[in-house]
Amino acid sequence: MLLFCLDLSELSRIADYLKVKYWLIFDKWKIIISGDSCNLQYSNAEKSYEMNSVNFDLSKKAKILVIDDEPIVRLTIEGLFTHENLELIFASNGVSGIALAQEVLPDAILLDLMMPDLDGFEVCRRVRSMPSLSEVPIIMITAVDQRDAKLRGLDAGVDDFLTKPFDTLEIQIKVRNILKLNRFRNLIDQRNNLIRVNEELVHTYDKTIEGWSRALDLRDQETEGHTIRVAENSVAFARLVGLPDIDLIHFRRGALLHDIGKLGIPDSILLKPGKLTDDEWIIMKKHPVYAHEWLSNIEYLVPAIDIPYCHHERWNGSGYPRGLKETAIPLAARIFSIIDVWDALRSERPYRKAMPEDEVRKYLTEKKGIEFDPDLVDIFLEKLTM
Fold this sequence. Notes:
The protein is of the alpha/beta class and 386 residues long. The protein is built from 15 helices and 8 strands.
């Protein structure tokens, strides 16, 4: 059995929220083969996933289509494989053989060369022209061991040859080997198909998050475009600081979702034009907690939680929601908070103009060691121009 392991139990809530149904990540694969069992496992830097969604049973009976006009040959082959775990299907001519191949989709074909209606070359060419049969292994049975015949067979799409009278051990070994190769080719095809589907799903998923972030910006028109800008700029800064690529993927998602908790804040508070009251401010400061509550139940987004949950924490412990201090604040949140404030001050608002760059630099310098990680502020001001 081929066992794909993927924990899909946590997807329903975010699926409803983001209109995404499945997430599959395939970075590192391990194929474990034992007897009739073949397990395909996936793991990444954070954990291994156990997937139960796809089965590929190598112990299932393989179907062999035998196309030969001689009854004695068909009987001989039947006798040779009586005790094998195979399903033998017989056709006495090329026309019926092609029809049966389309119907049963065999795992391999034993094909006679010399037949009265269609010879083996033509049967092979027609089989190879059909998308559903283009990769099926074909062993050609011929009474002549001639180079020209074999070259014509190879050109038509034959995979291997048996010469009459054939050696019983040779035909058994060749059939077994070609079936094994076909099964593992199918296995790799399924893996590649899943990888391709995964890439499409992940692309769609990330685009959905981007669209969602734009919708959040539109709700608060004062910050339109802010989320995409800080996501891209903070990823650039995180890369400069040295975060590995796998962490940057989660970092970007967290940056795009940094204000997702504001969906739980009433418009009367979020969009209030004047100063918030003390009670309103208490409610506003809950948005990181809402983000944590929503995203922590989504295993796929757990690595991205640090930014939505902690980007309002401050270096001296004066931030919220937990009052974390210094390096107790996750690195991703410390990086993001600098870019978040930079962008906010450099952007024009209805109630103020954008601050000049030198004034924002001065502000960050004054606040390092108070609100921001002092080392990160120094790196940012020295190396990065936004």
